[in-house]
Amino acid sequence: MPFSADAWSANAALYETIRTMPFNEALAAGTLTEDRFKHYIIQDAHYLIAFGRALAVAAAKADDTDGIVQFAEGAKVAIIVERALHADYFKQFGVTPADFEKTPLSPVCHHYSNFLVATAWSESYPLVLAALLPCFWIYARVGTDILGRAASPNPYQAWIDTYAGEDFHEAVNAVIATTDRVAAKAAPETVAAMHAAFKRATQLEWMFWDSAWRLGDWPV
After folding, report:
1. Stretch (H or E) spanning 104
2. For the domain bounded by 3-214, which CATH number is listed?
3. How far apart are CA 1 and CA 191, in angstroms?
């Protein structure tokens, strides 16, 4: 069984929890409150900076030239293309560049960002891929799921269209394929560590959306 199929099966129940969590249910219904989505989009913009850095390190660690191009381009997309989506919502919600800069990373965003960057710098290429894959894959699956049941009109349609879109899914499938290729030639102990990294990132995906729902902030 390819690594991706094994990892998804092992975390299927956790994905279902993500798919049906209050934030995503409300987003699909178009009833998600502005303060919750605003919290999410600001924290996601912070997160994508770290995600882009981790992708850039993955490119540097790639075991072939295709991987260098793939993850360098992924870093570019994370910073430029998805940032455009955030910019539109920032304008809609009246979030200025100064507002963004003075809003600190939430505890969960801080933890997830540091997990990805630390993993990218300190771990082997296979583990880096396993840690990055859930963000790609879960967003694609959640985007497609929400697209199929979203209320219309929906104030978050641009978000839905981005993550349910063909271009994003092509990129996700390419990351899955690279991860499976690398895992297929990895030692058993490396594959076991990849599974642990994949699970941790999946848990952090849940925590990120839950934090937005709770308007999570530093308690002290």
Report:
1. none
2. 1.20.910.10
3. 12
